Here is the input.
Amino acid sequence: MSDGIEESIRANPPRRFDITVGSLIGDDEQVVIVARPSLLMVPLAALGSLVGVAVLVVAIMLWTSVFPGFGWTAPQAVGFGMILVGARLGWLLLEWMNRLYVLTDRRVIRRRGVIRVNVFEARLDRMQQTTVVQSLRERLFGLGTIAFATAGTGTIDAVWEYLPKPYRVHADVALAIDRSPARGDAGGV
Here is the structure.
């Protein structure tokens, strides 16, 4: 990491720091926020899959009881279900580990992906709208999603998902957008 980045981080310490931040920001940027989704993302994002696996296991067990020659036993069906659940949770854990949200004094950055890494970045002066969205699952656990829309698009460009204290983070993002040097007197979010 260059001296400029280290100096910037010392001057404005991020709430959370990940060593990969250095590869995403320039020497002349100050880091405002470095965040990851809550670890609760793993089970919450897997809920639909977990219900599907449970239904599949029960269906196999019922089918086996009706047709004993089916070739599966109840313990085998449960074991198969556990393998599927483990694989799904393991994949979501990898996704969680590879998500990173960064706000600097100039840009919003989102990195995600396990095999195919996707990095979204947008200058703060191009930010048209930010919104906090909370699904019922997120609301129950005090989490939320911040959506970003930039000038020139008619839709949401990127999201920071499963964030703890989303309204506090959103306030920090809005303040950074308002203070963006290139934005001037253009107004806020």
Q: What stands out?
A: The helical segments are 3-11, 41-66, 74-97, 136-140, 166-179. Residues 42-94 form one domain. The longest strand covers residues 143-150. The chain is about 40% helix and 25% strand.
